[in-house]
């Protein structure tokens, strides 16, 4: 799994002009599911994000996690995180999981975050979405479970 995490002051997602999810601060997670991902990657990534210290403490240092600040989270499916642009001019997405694999893992990821205690909003899988992101900092972090799993 791959995730781009952005610390935000607010964010929303709209489909066909209607807001379907919004948060008032916390994290936006753009989530890509790869062809070899399993529930193991879901747990690994969700727990990493929940405990990643990317919020400032009273001294301005990144010492607080999303759990510490009671972050809200907006999760957006993003198969394009698996774009392979090494050849030609059109990206290939062969490493992105097909919907029948990706949807259950995406939904499990959301459930795990909610189970940890977060208020989680989402877009709609495979929908054309307009995502409004007010990045704070800006702070943007890239995570890939293939990297997180290495010893």
The total domain count is: 1
Q: pLDDT under 50 segments (min length 5)?
A: none
Over the alpha carbons, how many angstroms does the gyration radius reach?
15 Å
Listing every helix as H and every strand as E from the N terminus to the C terminus, the arrangement reads EEEHEEEHEEH
Q: Biggest sheet, open or closed, and with what strands and sense?
A: 6 strands, mixed
Distance between the termini: 17 Å
**CATH topology term:** D-tyrosyl-trna(Tyr) Deacylase, Chain: A
Helical region count?
3
Architecture in CATH?
3-Layer(bba) Sandwich
Number of strands: 8
Mean pLDDT: 95
CATH superfamily: D-tyrosyl-tRNA(Tyr) deacylase
Strand content: 35-45%
The first-level CATH class name: Alpha Beta
Report on the structure:
The protein has 151 residues and is α/β, with parallel strands linked by helices. It has a single domain, classed as D-tyrosyl-trna(Tyr) Deacylase, Chain: A. The chain is 23% helix and 40% strand. The strands form two sheets. Strands 1, 2, 3, 6, 7 and 8 form a six-stranded mixed β-sheet that branches. α1 runs parallel beside α2 (99-116). It is globular. The model has no long low-confidence stretch (mean pLDDT 95).
Summarize, please.
This protein is of the alpha/beta class and 151 residues long.
What is the topological layout?
Layout (H helix, E strand, L loop, with lengths): L1 E14 L2 E6 L2 E7 L6 H13 L1 E4 L5 E4 L6 E6 L21 H18 L2 E4 L7 E15 H4 L3
Parallel strand pairs: 3-6, 6-7
Antiparallel strand pairs: 1-2, 1-3, 1-8, 4-5
